[in-house]
Amino acid sequence: MIDGKTILITGGTGSFGKTVVNELFSNYKPKEIVIFSRDEKKQFDMRNKFDDSRLTFIIGNVRERETVFRTMKGIDLVFHAAALKQVPTCEFFPMEAVKTNIIGTNNVLDAAEDIGIEKVVVLSTDKAVYPINAMGITKALLEKLMLAKARTTTSNTVFCGVRYGNVMYSRGSVLPLFVEQIKKGKPITITNPNMTRFLLTLPIAINLVIFALKDAQNGDILVRKAPSSTVENIANSMLQIFEANTGIKTVGIREGEKIHETLVTQEELIRAEDLADFYRIQYLMQLDYDEYFKHGKENQIPEKGYTSENTERLNLEETKELILSLPEIKKALG
């Protein structure tokens, strides 16, 4: 599925892109990996880091339809990771999120269908489930665009997606902020001590997208199960790890935040296949309005979906152990 193929990663200069490139070069034999993104400095740094002739860089924006179509020629497999991901940014500039996360995604899907790409994996987030902020809403529509394309495509392209929670120490996660606050001698700021968040290491997230690339079927959304912890436990773990006495300051829940995150809804659990470490959410594939509107399912809806409240909950010591396993934390500790 991967060896000998040319793989495109949109938004590939981020933490996801760099890690998946390392994984693909270390354990597989791709013919070429093409990084398509907007930031020339990040591309320059990534090119120097890998120094591999199989790695190609293209400057461009998924918003530009013509550029996306031109870039897609000769590609076999696509990871669509390009997105505006910061919740506050998307709240203040929602139309920019629409342009990248929705219109940009549509450009990628249309180009893949037109050219006949083998498989497209779109990256989504727990914030797309019961979304309450602009970022989550645009990511939810990203999923709907993928599913609509999977239902209606006349090509042999497989369209699928993955959905995962917070990737620890990725861009926008709280851990880099906590490290910065501790090193400046400032108290760690949290929104609500009882708030829970899924905790996923980057290698586990990469494992999910590789699994999707190999095994996902048309219209699948694959979800990686993950433990969770309270924000208070995460903050106390950081204070103990860095032997800091700066304390914790509670600032209150910000607009667009949830107390608990959901990865699979109650309704999705009805049609979800439990694959031990994963859920495979399968959707009605045929565009059959009669089936859609007139024939419901008799399955009983579970009381709750799969959430950061009811998943495996890590205590303080377990949270601390997981955080200590991160290479970024080891580096910050010197």
Multimeric state of these chains? single chain
H/I helix tally: 13
Largest sheet: 9 strands, mixed
Structural category? alpha/beta
Outline type? globular
The arrangement of helices and strands along the chain is: EHEHEHEHHEHEHEEHEEHEEHEEHEHH
Give me the count of strands.
Answer: 15
Strand order of the largest sheet: 3-2-1-4-5-6-9-14-13
Tell me the Rg in angstroms: 20 Å
**Unreliable segments (pLDDT under 50, ≥5 consecutive)?**
none
Distance between the termini: 40 Å
Mean pLDDT, all residues: 92
Explain the overall architecture:
- With about 325 residues, the chain is α/β, with parallel strands linked by helices.
- Helices cover about 40% and strands about 20% of the residues.
- The chain is built from 13 helices and 15 strands.
- The chain has a nine-stranded mixed beta sheet, sandwiched between helices.
- β1 (about 5-10), α1 and β2 (about 30-35) form a beta-alpha-beta unit.
- The longest helix has 22 residues, at about 95-115.
- The protein is globular, with a radius of gyration of 20 Å.
Provide a concise account of the structure shown.
The protein is an alpha/beta fold and 334 residues long. The protein has helices spanning 15-27, 40-50, 65-72, 87-92, 94-115, 134-152, 174-183, 202-215, 231-241, 266-270, 289-294, 316-324, 327-333; strands at 6-10, 32-37, 55-59, 77-80, 119-125, 158-164, 188-190, 196-198, 221-224, 228-230, 248-250, 262-264, 272-274, 278-281, 306-307. The longest helix has 22 residues, at 94-115.
List keywords for this structure.
13 helices, alpha/beta, 9-stranded mixed β-sheet, globular
